[in-house]
Amino acid sequence: MLTESVENYLTAILRLEDQGAAATTSELADRLEVARPSVTGMLKRLAAEDLVTHERYRGVQLTEQGRTAALQVIRRHRLVETFLVDILGMDADKVHAEAHRLEHALSDEVVDRLDAWLGRPTTDPHGQPIPGPINLQGDELEEDVTD
Ligand SMILES: [Zn+2]
Fold first, then answer.
1. Ligand 1 centroid distance, CA of 29 (Å)
2. Residue 83 Cα, ligand 1 centroid: separation in angstroms?
3. Cα of 123 to ligand 1 centre, how many Å?
4. Are 52 and 79 contained in the same domain?
5. Which of 14, 32, 51, 89 is most buried by its number of CB atoms within 10 A?
6. Which among 112, 131, 139, 142 is positioned nearest to 11, based on CA atoms?
């Protein structure tokens, strides 16, 4: 399990990559509202866990594993937003903060059941695509064997 903080870094880096912007230390510090030395420390940790690569002049880039993990957080976020709007009837403008808290709390099984119950939606209430499920456990097991 990744910590909430790690998940927030990974999704922030993914969003910057998707916008075609370099995920630099200062950009991440602004986005996550943390001090630059904290970002530097966290990026070392993420690199050690093989979630990002960090090259001095190119900024931070997600590894395949980091990208997969970030997409799963976004999947949880967007499914929760769909649940809050479609089922609980909340205003679409108000669900982001709720979803941001809940996105870290749901297990894979709960997310999968929620997804099925919602009818496997492909977009969230804001029209953003919901990433599909990925079997992380299978991948990790295989890597352990070959290492
Ligand atoms: Zn949102």
1. 20
2. 12
3. 12
4. no
5. 51
6. 131
CA–CA separation, 35 and 56 (whole Å): 18
8 and 52 assigned to the same domain? yes
> Are 32 and 81 found together in one domain?
no
56 shares its domain with 81: no
Tens digit of pLDDT for each residue in 52-80?
998 877 789 999 999 999 999 999 999 99
Instruction: Assess contact for 123 and 130: CB atoms under 8 A.
Output: yes
Cβ neighbours of residue 85 closer than 8 Å, sequence gap 6 or more:
91, 92, 95, 125
Distance 7 CA to ligand 1 centre (A): 14
pLDDT band at 2 (very low <50, low <70, confident <90, very high): confident
- Cα(102) to ligand 1 centroid in Å equals 11
Is the domain of 114 the same as that of 80? yes
- Distance of CA 101 from the midpoint of ligand 1 (Å): 10
Q: List the domain range (segments joined by +) for residue 45.
A: 4-62
Q: What is the CATH number of the domain that holds 81?
A: 1.10.10.10
